[in-house]
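Fold these two proteins, one after the other.
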Amino acid sequence: MRIAAELQPTLGTLLRHLLEMLDGAVEQAYQRAGLDYRPRYTPVMRVLIDVGAASIRTISQRAGITHSAVSQTVSQMAGRGLVTLTAGADARERIVALTPTAQAIVPALVRQWTATNAAAQALDDELSAPLSALLREAIAALNRQSFIDRIAAAPATSRPPARPAPKSRTRTSGKSRR
């Protein structure tokens, strides 16, 4: 099937590639600065720096990421000694707090975040339209109508071309080809 070779990369492929390029570079910057830290920790860290110890739910709401993503990220951060988890007001609630190890790296993280934001601004300035503005617009549009609803509303007429029927092979002699 040759369809894949003829198609341009899809939106999902382009977004994954862009995120890999950005996150990979940011992670390298952390490593160069001597930090054992991943970009995915940043939304959680920023909330905890801002409000102090907080529930997973509060972090999720303040950071604008899913409860599941926060829970997974917090588990990774706990494994690296950056946060502690304690029971909240009820058995289901967990409170996340920065450890002294995490608090000690905050100044270095702030320097990295400042440099990252400056690099992002330079990238925005280089593009025909600022990427950050387009991302905000896309998120707002998807909040108005989800992508699954857009898929359902899309015309189903653009389907891949039908496969051609296999060519029949005729034998010219009684010998078989092997």
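Now the second one:
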Amino acid sequence: MENQNFSLTGTVHTGAMARDFSPDDPLCFVDSGTVPGGNFMSDEHVKEKKNSDKNSDTGSSAQPQSLSKGMAQKVTIDVKHVILVLSGKGGVGKSTVSVNLAFALANHGKNVGLLDLDFHGPSIPKMLGIEGKRALVYGNAIEPVHVTGNLAVMSMALLMSDPSTPVIWRGPMKIKAIQEFLSEVTWGSLDYLVVDLPPGTGDEALTIAQLAPNVKGAVIVTTPQEVAVVDAIKAAKFIEKIKLPVIGIIENMSGMICPDCGSTIDLFSRGGGKKAAENLKVPYLGAIPLDPEMVKAGDEGRPIILRHADSPTGKAVDAIMENLVRLIES
């Protein structure tokens, strides 16, 4: 069946969300809603959504419950553990950590889904070497792209014919897309769903926390320097405010491994993530060095956990995954 794609000037094709819109659509340029504890959408948008849902077909095996007074309810999908990966600011390597964490879990026999919710800058497909593939849409069902037999990926980039096309959305469209990425993607039975969130504490993080079932908490990614750690602490406090646990903090780019001599150079200092974890009284999951091979791995679409599993960086990623699993499953 011919694949259907997102288009900013055509029709949105994700099952029940199919509708014509353009950059002048009010769902692209509207206020995003309210803070946790209040309605995500205004009464007007909730009314529009309810009317839209009545007129749409619902053929998915995993349908979200109906809205009650504007509050979206949990989506029912077969997943044991949902892990949110977020950071207080961009540029700390959060998506790189998400990709390698998901691959490490899959390498240990877990059935894993990787959900890229960075609508405005989806980089997961590039990092996995699947940027040329497309997620297939069959009626109200969306088939994710399978990187391996037990690792499935869903990203906005897998629904767009041109990866350079910007997604110009505000809150309600993001909320609807997240709802459908959960309920209409045929994830199958998952041990883990790793959710890569955009930087900050906005609509995407609020919505996935409210809609996804079995959310075990959040992993906060930071780099060692104080300017990044300050924002990581804000992200951790955000997670606490929405009544989720902080699973732990990961310090990325923690010293650079010299490609010539193998020694470690503290380009961005070291220890900021560990100190933040101690101050917040949350687990410290470990540190990942700044490795030039990690950069190559991302550009070439082969995570370092595959390319150099026995390197210090590969071992660091694997150790963090084991710490994570122990905390979640113990």
